[in-house]
Amino acid sequence: MNRKALDELKHQIPLLDYVQAQGWQQARPIGFGRFLGLCPLHTDQKPSFLVDPNKNLFFCYGCRRGGDVIRFAELYHQVEFSQAIALLLEWCGLAPLLDQVTDFYRIQLFRHRDAVAYLYDRGLRSSEVIEHMRIGYAPGRCLRGWLNQLGYPTSTLRQAGLVTAISRDAFHQRVVFPLEGNLYGRSIGNSSPHLFLPGSKGGLYAWEQVRREPEIILMEGLFDYAVLWQAGFRNVTCSMGSHLNARQFQQLCDGPRTVYLAFDSDANQSGQQAAQSISRRLWAQGIPARRVQLPEGQDPNDFFVAGGDAHQFQRLLEAARP
Prior knowledge:
- The protein is α+β, with helices and mostly antiparallel strands.
- The chain has three domains: 3-77, DNA Primase, Chain A (Alpha-Beta Complex); 92-196, DNA primase, catalytic core, N-terminal domain (DNA primase DNAg catalytic core, N-terminal domain, Alpha-Beta Complex), CATH 3.90.980.10; 207-318, 3-Layer(aba) Sandwich (Dna Topoisomerase Vi A Subunit, Chain: A, domain 2).
- The chain has 14 helices and 13 strands.
- The protein has helices spanning 3-12, 15-21, 69-77, 81-109, 113-121, 127-133, 143-149, 154-160, 207-210, 222-230, 246-252, 270-284, 300-305, 310-318; strands at residues 26-29, 35-37, 49-52, 57-60, 66-67, 136-138, 174-179, 182-187, 194-196, 215-219, 236-238, 258-262, 289-291.
- Strands 1-2-3-4-5 form a five-stranded antiparallel beta sheet, covered by helices on one side.
- α3 packs across α4 and α6 packs across α10.
- The longest helix is centred in the N-terminal third of the chain and has 29 residues, at 81-109.
- The termini are far apart.
C-alpha cells in the first residue's frame, strides 16, 4: 500500500471512533477538542491517554507511546504493520455492517418466544444481562432484505459470511452474540451448535471492562460468562473455547493480576487439562493462576442452572488451587 492509500485509510477512520470501538472511554475533555482517559495499552491508574481528533493522533503520558490510528492498531492488537492495515481495512467496511446486524437481531429476540425460552433454560433470567451482552436472535429469511434496503448489496453480505450462497441467513435459528469484529451464533434448532463469521474470534470477551481488575475469572463460553455476570461477578471474561489464541494469552499477561480458571469439568478432562496448561504458562510469565474445581460433568453455566448460587461459587473460588 503506497503513501497516498495509507493517508486515505487514516482519513477514513477517525482515531476517536476506532479507540472507542475497542471499549475506550474518555474521562473528560481537556480543551481544544481533545480527550483524556485511561490508557488501553497498559495498566493505567489515572487518565494518561490523550486523543486529539483534530490531528487524528494519540499519545500516552504513562507508557510514552503515540501515533496515528495505524500505530494504535499495531500496539493494541499486538500485530505488525501489515496486519494492522488488514485489520483496519476490515473494520472500516465490516464494523458498521455488524452494528446494523446486531441491532436487527436484538429487535428480533423478544419477538420469538422460542429464543427467549432457550435463553431462560440456559440460565439467562434477567433482561439486564441480555442487554449487557447485546444478545439477539436470527429468525432467518428477513436479514438480507432489510440490509439490502439499507444499501448493502447481497454480494457484500455473502463475502462477510452473513448470508449463504443461496442468500439464506447464515445464523438462521440461532441466538447471536456480538463479538469484537465477529458474531457468535448458538443454534436453538437442529443445526451444528456453534457458528462464527469467517476470521478471528478476537480477544477475550469484554476485556476492556475487566482488564484493570486485580483478580479475573476466565471461562470457556459466553453462557458461562452470562450466568456469572448475572450473579454479580463483574470480573469475568471468556475465551470462547479452551484454546487461547496468542492475543488472548497476551491480554492475560498485560498487567499484574491473579487469574482464576473456571473451565469445564468434562468427563474426558479436556477442560481441566487445558486449564492446567494455561496455568503453567501464566505462572511462567509471573501471573498467578488458580484452577477452579467445578462438580464433575459441569461447566459454570451448568452449575448455576442446576441451582448453584453466587455464595456457593465464591466458595469454589476460595478453594481454587494453583
